[in-house]
Amino acid sequence: MSSSIDKLDQLEAQSVYILREAYREFKSLVMLWSIGKDSTVLLWLARKAFFGHVPFPLVHIDTNYKIPEMIKYRDELALKFKLNMIVGQNVQALKDKRTYPDGALDRISCCKALKTDALKNTLSGTWPRKRLNHVTGQYEIDANTEPYTGVIVGARADEEGSRSKERYFSPRDRNSDWDVGDQPPELWNQFKTDFAPGTHIRVHPLLDWTELNIWEYIQRENIPITYLYFDQGKGKRYRSLGCYPCTTPVDSTAKNISEIIEELRSGKFKNIAERSGRAQDKEDGGGLETLRKDGYM
Predict the structure, then answer these.
(1) In which band, very low, low, confident or very high, does the pLDDT at 190 lie, cut at 50, 70 and 90?
(2) What is the pLDDT of residue 262?
(3) What's the rounded Cα separation, in Å, for the pair 237 and 276?
(4) Is the pLDDT score of 126 beyond 60?
(5) Which pLDDT score is estimated for 295?
(6) Domain ranges of the chain
(7) Which of 16, 49, 95, 173 has the largest CB neighbor count within 10 A?
(8) CA angle 252, 253, 258 (to 5 degrees)
């Protein structure tokens, strides 16, 4: 048990260091919050890094197809933690019914429209952004259209193949496109942060965390998490959260965090990908590299 605790302390310290470095080095910094376990741990680490306050906006890309409980959880936590909460959306695609659930697109094209395009245009300020009003509890059009050029993301190297090719500080071009072969070396905790003007930076403080580490940390810190990760008596739970038309739960009777940790340690899922319930991954050849090269999370 002590070795597990020591490992979590090391991971926490590294992530806090990366977060502070990012805040020191980059202007117009934001954090993506998908409402899932990883980005919620990232949010918790940001609050630790800055003594209970998150000094940059959180951005959520709302596809309009998230499981309703996810949106409820987002807004409750945003109000509780007094977060500067920004929401972006591809309003035109939804209005025109250019989505997979409407039968107009395949899953990959739908992800590109509702996630990638929405993210890129939300970050650039090209499309309207909505900000949570903490007095009314409602989202209002944000008057600030300044581009966000540094983005903190909760990606983990072990979660999916293309994410293992990332760096802690990963450059994109002006269009947020990712050149996998042109990533800076990061040796002996030396990180490149002096990028050319116009470079869009993705920051990955959770890169070395595993799925088990995440759940052990959630348990240790008592981090509030959505109940969708737990079996509600039907022998199924979500292992990865996404849009409800493209996300299916896994077979599991784990009803709490301790049981999820026990399940992961048992090796039950050792040959089953964490994102096995995400249908779009299968359409992209079992990975997300096609989407991620074009700016996807």
Answers:
(1) confident
(2) 98
(3) 13
(4) yes
(5) 47
(6) 2-210+285-293, 227-280
(7) 49
(8) 105
Average pLDDT, stretch 118-139?
A: 96
Tokens describing residue 49: 């890094």
Q: Which CATH number fits domain 2-210+285-293: 3.90.550.10, 3.40.50.10490, 3.40.50.620, 3.90.79.10?
A: 3.40.50.620
Contact 228, 67 (CB under 8 A): yes
Pairing of strands 169-172, 150-152: unpaired
Question: Length of the chain, please?
Answer: 297
